[in-house]
Amino acid sequence: MAYSDKVIDHYTNPRNVGTLDKSSTQVGTGLVGAPECGDVMRLQIQVDENNVITDAKFKTFGCGSAIASSSLATEWLKGKSIDEAITIDNMDIVEELALPPVKIHCSVLAEDAIKAAINDYRVKNGLAPIELEKSHH
Amino acid sequence: MNLPIYLDNNATTPMDPRVLEAMIPYFTQKFGNAASRNHHFGWVAEEGVDYAREQVAKLIGASEKEIIFTSGATESDNLAIKGVFEMYKDKGNHIITAVTEHKAVLDACKHVEKLGGKVTYLPVKEDGLVDLAQLEAAMTPETILVSIMYGNNEIGVVQPVKEIAAIAHKHGALFMTDATQAVGKIPVDVNADGIDLLALSAHKMYGPKGVGALYVRRKGPRVKVTAQMDGGGHERGMRSGTLNVPGIVGLGKACELAYNEMASEAARLSALRDKLQNALTVLEESYVNGNQEHRLPHVANISFKYVEGEGLMMAMKDLAVSSGSACTSASLEPSYVLKSLGLSDDLAHSSIRFGLGRFTTEEEVDYAIEVTKKAVTHLRELSPLWEMFKEGIDLNSIEWAEH
C-alpha cells in the first residue's frame, strides 16, 4: 500500500514534535492508544487566557499514518479556540491525508487525543470534562 | 549499488539467472507434456522433469522416486497433512504441530479438526524452539503425524528436527517438516534427520514461483498420502495435474546450485548477518528475537523497543524488509510467531526481519545498517514511549486505553 504525498510529507517533516510542561495549568495533555495496539499518541496544547490554543506539540509511537495524523492535528489546533478545536472530526483528517480504510483508526486516535488534551485542560482549570462518545475502534 | 535494497529474502528470492537460462527452452522448443509417453515432445519434457527430480532429491538426500512436484510449499503442506490424515485415519486421528508454524500448516490442521481430527498445537520456548519433553508428553497412541517446521520464516530458528523425528517414530507416528526456509540454505538430509514427509518451495531458493515439491518416504516406512485433487493420476497418483515442466526444471536447477554453493554461501551470509546484527544491537533497547545458535544463516529478527515496526519501515527508505507489526489489519494483531515466544505486544510491534540472500553485498549491508540506525533514532525522537522510558517511567504502570 502506498502512502499519500501528504502522509509522507508529515512523516518526513513532522510539525510540532516535542513536549510542553504537563504540570502547567495552561497545558492540556492527551495520551491515547496503547503500546500493545501498536500506536500511542501524546498531544499537548498550550491555552491562553482567551481560550485560544497558542501552541501544540505531539509525540507518537505508531505507523506513518498515525504520525502524520497527529502532526496534522497540531497544525490545525494552533490558533483555534478550545470550542473550535473540539469540533475537529477524524474524517477531516482522513480526507486531508487521503488515508485508506485500514488507516482510519489513526485519525480516530488523533481525534481522541485532541479531546483528551482539551479535557485535561478543562479539568485542570476547574471545568467539567466534555462528555465524549466512547471511542469507535 | 542500486536502490532500493532487497532484504526480504524470507518472503521470496530473486531468480538466479542460471535458473532462468535452464528454464527457457522448456517454454518454447521443449514444450511437450511430460505425460505424453508416445512421442518425442513428451519424452523431451519427461527427461527434463526426471533430471529435475534427481536434482531435488540429491539436495535433501532422497531418492528421485520420493519427490512429488506441486505448485509450492503451501500445496505440499496441505497434501501432506490432509493426505496423511485421510490415509491413516484407521490408525488414529491425532496430529501434533506447533504454534509457530506457517499458516499453510496451521490452517491445514484446522481443516483436519473440522473433519473430526484432533490437533495439539505445541507452544514454543522463549527462544522459539519446541520443548522435546512437551512433545513427548503430547504423543498418544492415536498420534499419526508430527508436523514441525525445519526453519522458521519469521525468526529463522532451526528446530531440533532429528530429535523430534525420533520421538515421533518411537510412538509410531510419521514426521513431517515444512522445510521451505531451510532447504538450500542449510544441510537437510531426510535419512539422517528421520523425515517422512518434507515440503519445499522453489521461489525461496532462487527458483521460480508457483512450483515446489513434497518428499514422501518410500522405504522404512513406505508412506502414502491421499491425493487432494482428482485427475490424471500424475506423480504416483498423489498429485494430479499436467506437470509444470519449465517450473520443475527451474526448481531442479535451483536445487543443484544450492547444493553446490551452500557451504560457502552460508558462511558468507552468516558473516554479513552477524555484522548487521552486531551493528544494530549496539542501539539501546534492541533485542534479537529467537535462538541465535540454532538459526538459519541469512536472517535476523530484531526488535527496536519504543518504535513501531511499520513506521520504522517507512523511515528505512530504500530498504525492503518486513515487520512483525500488522498495523494494516483490522485486528492490529502483531505477529503470532513473536507473541508465542512470550514477547509483549509492544515488542512484537517493534520488530523488523532482515532477510539476506545470494545477491546481497557487504556494501548493501553497510548501507542498511546506517539507514536503520538513523531511522530508529529519528522515530525514537518522535516516540512518547521512548521519552517516558528515558524519564524512568514504567510503561506498565500506565493505564492504557484499550482500543
From TrEMBL, chain A:
GO molecular function: iron ion binding; iron-sulfur cluster binding
Domain NIF system FeS cluster assembly NifU N-terminal per the UniProt entry, residue ranges: 2-125
One GO process term, biological-process aspect: iron-sulfur cluster assembly
Keywords tagged on the record: Iron, Metal-binding
InterPro entries registered for this protein in UniProt: ISCU (IPR011339), NIF_FeS_clus_asmbl_NifU_N (IPR002871)
Coiled-coil stretches: none
CDD domains in the record: IscU_like (cd06664)
Alphabetical list of PANTHER family matching this protein: IRON-SULFUR CLUSTER ASSEMBLY ENZYME NIFU HOMOLOG
Similarity field: Belongs to the NifU family.
Job description of the protein: A scaffold on which IscS assembles Fe-S clusters. It is likely that Fe-S cluster coordination is flexible as the role of this complex is to build and then hand off Fe-S clusters.
Protein name: Iron-sulfur cluster assembly scaffold protein IscU
